[in-house]
Design brief:
Layout: E1 36-40, E2 47-50, E3 59-63, E4 68-81, E5 86-93, E6 98-100, E7 104-106, E8 135-138, E9 151-153, E10 160-162, E11 167-175, E12 193-199, E13 204-211, E14 222-223, E15 228-231, E16 243-249, E17 258-259, H1 261-267, E18 273-274
Parallel strand pairs: 8-18
Antiparallel strand pairs: 1-4, 1-7, 2-3, 4-5, 5-6, 8-9, 9-16, 10-15, 11-12, 11-14, 12-13, 13-16, 16-17
The structure holds zinc ion.
Protein name: M23ase beta-sheet core domain-containing protein
InterPro entries: Cell_wall_metabolism_enzyme, Dup_hybrid_motif, M23ase_b-sheet_dom
Keywords: Signal
Length: about 280
């Protein structure tokens, strides 16, 4: 099937109001500009909309054949052979979800490249809690710390750190640029110190950093919501005891799939305490 003739040809600047990782797919307060419109063409029951440009990214929703869509931008991703074309481009829709352009019948105009790396927050199942009861002392990708991919929670040394939901421990690591994770770290070091990652349902991975000693769980261990993973410390690149906590949409956890833990928990009705 070839691209349809022009359906819509509005131009415009792209999504200037979007911020990194702060817009849940189903509660996006902004309205990104529409670069193109199109229609889903799928021979199967539905095309999955994803949190990122790959079939391994978390599923956000499903679009049936004939669904009209509004595209805000495109990005390079997994190469897909589809019903309309074969391409490595994925379209980011105005709800921040991604679909392969291989299943989109649309006009042939150039769609602008995505200039922000928004990752949509999917609906998640199960019950959730906060990892520690403590004040929020540093936020996610703030103006002062644009590469801070998690939140810092000001818990005291030896506070128990709990799995925020059921899952499987996928990583237990000492990560420090020199020396040991069994001693207090410092700002002159790099690394997360002793840390744990837990994989949950719906491709969510949570990460817990700077533990005081080797975590109390092991890789492959199935944990419940509330299982103690380890204890608060200040190992690795850390200037004092706290929990650095990250949420990722997709495994493995990378910088590109980190989302705001504040926004993620807000969707679940949970709020980090004030410092
Ligand atoms: Zn941190």
């Amino acid at each position: 099937m070839k691209r349809a003739t022009t359906l819509f040809a509005a131009a415009g600047t792209l999504g200037g109001a979007l911020t990194l990782g702060t817009a849940p797919a189903h509660a996006d307060p902004t309205t990104p500009d529409i670069a193109a419109t199109g229609t889903i063409v799928t021979a199967t029951t539905g095309l999955n909309a994803r949190s990122g440009p790959s079939s391994a990214s978390a599923r956000i929703g499903t679009l049936t054949n004939g669904t009209p869509i509004a595209i805000s931008c495109r990005t390079a991703g997994e190469f897909i052979s589809g019903t309309v074309t074969n391409t490595g481009y994925w379209d980011r829709l105005t709800d921040n979800s991604f679909i392969s352009d291989a299943f989109v019948q649309r006009d042939a105009i150039d769609i602008p490249k995505c200039t922000t790396t928004t990752v949509a927050i999917p609906e998640v199942s199960g019950t959730w809690m906060l990892p520690v009861k403590a004040g929020l002392v540093s936020g996610f990708r703030t103006v002062e710390r644009p590469v801070h991919d998690g939140v810092d929670l000001g818990a005291t040394r030896n506070t128990a750190i709990r799995a925020v939901s059921a899952g499987t421990v996928i990583r237990v690591v000492c990560n420090v640029s020199r020396g040991s994770c069994d001693v207090d770290g410092s700002r002159s070091l790099r690394g997360c110190g002793w840390y744990v990652e837990v994989q949950h349902a719906d491709s969510i991975v949570t990460r817990y950093c700077h533990m005081i000693r080797r975590p109390s769980v092991t890789v492959g261990q199935v944990v419940r919501r509330g299982t103690i993973l380890g204890h608060v410390g200040t190992s690795g690149a850390s200037s004092g005891p706290h929990l650095h906590f990250e949420v990722h949409v997709g495994a493995p956890a990378t910088r590109a799939n980190a989302v705001s833990p504040i926004d993620f928990m807000a969707v679940l009705g949970l709020t980090f305490g004030s410092a």
